[in-house]
Amino acid sequence: MEIRVEKLSSTELKKKGVESWPIWTKEISRFPWSYDSTEECFILEGQVTVETKNGNIVKFGKGDFVTFPKGLSCVWTVERPIRKHYNFK
């Protein structure tokens, strides 16, 4: 179960309909999170480090397209306030 971080072109983002997805925001914080379904998100602002239960550390921020697999449990550390479009599959 891996978190995937990509850079997508504006064409690819448009094809996915990212601009129509809801927006989620969060202040600087640290919290556990589990995924009941696969989430795709596009980071509009901020910087985050996510640590998975097996110790993998993934960093992402503005401009990244991130996919979290269903069944993943992790801890989010929001280092700079985040704003993202998100979509559950």
Description of the structure:
With 89 residues, the protein is mainly beta. It has a single domain (4-88), classed as Jelly Rolls. It has one helix and seven strands. Strands 1, 2, 3, 4, 5, 6 and 7 form a seven-stranded antiparallel β-sheet that branches. Strand 4 (39-52) and strand 5 form a beta hairpin. The relative contact order is 0.38. The mean pLDDT is 97.
Q: Which superfamily, in CATH terms, is the homologous superfamily?
A: Jelly Rolls
How many distinct helices? 1
CATH topology: Jelly Rolls
Number of strands: 7
CATH class: Mainly Beta
Q: Report the principal-axis shape.
A: globular
Summed over residues and divided by their number, the pLDDT gives a mean of 97
Contiguous low-pLDDT stretches (5 residues minimum) are none
Q: What's the domain count?
A: 1
Instruction: Give the proportion of residues in helices.
Output: under 10%
Order of helices and strands: EHEEEEEE
